[in-house]
């Protein structure tokens, strides 16, 4: 059998402790999900970094393109009224 | 803003460039070369120390050394992954290492003759590596910077365990102290060479500095390393093998003797004491692991096919 084809790439996400969300920590190659999990455990959680691991085939991630950054994110620049600090209230108002 | 302006603007403002952002071709190539050399150094660096795993003087030292060598494999992985985000495949990178096209740190072409060498490597080689690597945590390329942050976090245990081995030997019998001194004598100069050629001889440095890949010059980092290490050697009663080493009150730094750059060139061009052996060992390990990689892939394919059949 040829060894030319690389094992697919997986992105690794770790929940560092209960109550926090999983966070991207890096990537690795593995032939299947089971081995990806096992490798992720070996390389990304050697020092109590995790309580849970997700591995996702890198090819399965759909990502926005940097070219679309302006189109996607600029519109929120002129909507300051979405932030609470936009609203001037009298000093007498409490607990708001 | 054009992509090029965006790049220059981000770099100038110390913001990160991410994998899919536009970047100059030279920036990409420089990073691939640097990150892959760095990755290669991590995994070739496993070899001199692995020689001592089976001969470590106690179970505790064996467990520590095993953990350290395992860390180096992990560091190699973080760095290969960072290089791959630039569009180069892992197989290509390994091929370049195995064919001798890519370089790795020349320090790993020196032999580990005694147990004290394991101490000297942790203290000096990992110490010099940390000096080089901490600024890379702020490198302009996001995936490299993040990989380096992980590496640096793990690396400090390496240096401390090495220093502690040297400390223990230096406090031991005369023979043990001699062994520590001998290791220091052999590893000191190669460690200073790890910072690379002098600034005057380092033509690509200016560009790397402008791109915020590099933040301090080779000579600056080398000087810092000397200043940091001299008092540590004094503390454990070992002597750095440099007759010209002395404190310079006017500069506030230690002056040190001339580095033998001819030796550096010789080792880097493939004629160090262990170049051939390291590369052969690496290639052999890769070749002997081929059946594992193939079997794992075949197993995964078989299970995928079985799952597809049962779903049908």
Radius of gyration of chain B: 21 Å
Main beta sheet of chain B: strand number and arrangement?
A: 2 strands, antiparallel
Q: How many beta-strand runs of chain A?
A: 3
- What percent of the residues of chain B sit in helical stretches (DSSP H or I)? 55-70%
Number of helices of chain B: 13
Features:
heterodimer, A: 96 residues, alpha+beta, three-stranded antiparallel sheet, 2 helices, 3 strands, 21% strand, B: 312 residues, mainly alpha, 67% helix
Account of the protein in words:
- The complex is a heterodimer of chains A (96) and B (312).
- With 96 residues, chain A is of the alpha+beta class.
- Chain A is built from 2 helices and 3 strands; from the N terminus they run ββαβα.
- A 3-stranded antiparallel β-sheet of chain A has the order 2-1-3, covered by helices on one side.
- Chain A is elongated, with a radius of gyration of 22 Å.
- Helices cover 67% and strands 2% of the residues of chain B.
- Chain B has helices spanning 3-12, 25-44, 46-50, 59-84, 90-98, 115-133, 142-170, 174-193, 205-210, 218-235, 261-271, 275-288, 290-311, and strands spanning 246-248, 253-255.
- Chain B is an all-alpha fold and 312 residues long.
- Chain A binds chain B through residues 1, 3-7, 9, 25-32, 35, 42-43, 46-47, 63, 65-66, and chain B through 18, 20-22, 67, 70-71, 73-74, 77-78, 81, 84, 89-91, 146-147, 150, 154, 290, 293-294, 296-301, 303-304.
Blueprint of the fold:
The complex is a heterodimer of chains A (96) and B (312).
Chain A: E1 9-15, E2 23-29, H1 33-44, E3 52-57, H2 69-73
Antiparallel strand pairs in A: 1-2, 1-3
Chain B: H1 3-12, H2 25-44, H3 46-50, H4 59-84, H5 90-98, H6 115-133, H7 142-170, H8 174-193, H9 205-210, H10 218-235, E1 246-248, E2 253-255, H11 261-271, H12 275-288, H13 290-311
Antiparallel strand pairs in B: 1-2
Helix pairs in contact in B: 2-4, 4-7, 6-7, 6-8, 6-10
């Amino acid at each position: 059998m040829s060894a030319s084809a690389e094992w697919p790439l997986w992105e690794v996400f770790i929940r560092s402790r209960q109550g926090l969300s999983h966070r991207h920590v890096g990537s690795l190659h593995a032939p299947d999900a089971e081995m990806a999990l096992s490798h992720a455990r070996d390389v990304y959680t050697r020092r109590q970094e995790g309580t849970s691991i997700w591995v996702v085939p890198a090819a399965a991630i759909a990502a926005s393109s940097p070219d679309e950054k302006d189109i996607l994110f600029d519109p929120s620049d002129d909507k300051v009224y979405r932030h609470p600090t936009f609203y001037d209230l009298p000093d007498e108002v409490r607990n708001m | 803003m054009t992509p090029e302006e965006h790049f220059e603007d981000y770099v100038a403002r110390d913001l990160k460039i991410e994998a899919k952002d536009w970047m100059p071709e030279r920036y990409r190539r420089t990073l691939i070369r640097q990150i892959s050399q760095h990755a290669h150094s991590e995994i070739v660096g496993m070899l001199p120390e692995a020689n001592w795993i089976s001969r470590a003087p106690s179970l505790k030292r064996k467990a520590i050394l095993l953990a350290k060598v395992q860390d180096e494999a992990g560091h190699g992985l973080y760095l290969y992954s960072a290089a791959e985000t630039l569009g180069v495949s892992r197989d290509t990178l390994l091929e370049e290492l195995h064919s001798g096209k890519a370089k790795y740190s020349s320090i790993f072409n020196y032999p580990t003759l005694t147990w004290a060498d394991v101490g000297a490597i942790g203290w000096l080689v990992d110490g010099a590596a940390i000096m080089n690597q901490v600024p890379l945590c702020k490198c302009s390329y996001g995936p490299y910077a993040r990989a380096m942050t992980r590496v640096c976090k793990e690396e400090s245990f390496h240096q401390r365990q090495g220093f502690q081995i040297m400390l223990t030997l230096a406090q031991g019998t005369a023979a043990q102290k001699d062994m520590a001194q001998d290791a220091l004598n052999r590893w000191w100069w190669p460690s200073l060479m790890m910072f690379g050629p002098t600034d005057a001889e380092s033509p690509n440095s200016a560009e790397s500095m402008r791109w915020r890949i590099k933040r301090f010059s080779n000579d600056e980092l080398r000087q810092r390393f000397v200043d940091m290490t001299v008092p540590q050697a004094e503390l454990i009663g070992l002597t750095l093998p440099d007759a010209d080493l002395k404190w310079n009150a006017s500069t506030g730094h230690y002056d040190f003797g001339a580095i033998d750059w001819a030796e550096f060139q010789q080792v880097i061009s493939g004629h160090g004491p262990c170049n051939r052996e390291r590369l052969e060992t690496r290639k052999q390990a890769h070749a002997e692991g081929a059946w594992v990689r193939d079997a794992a892939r075949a197993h995964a394919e078989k299970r995928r096919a079985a799952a597809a059949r049962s779903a049908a």
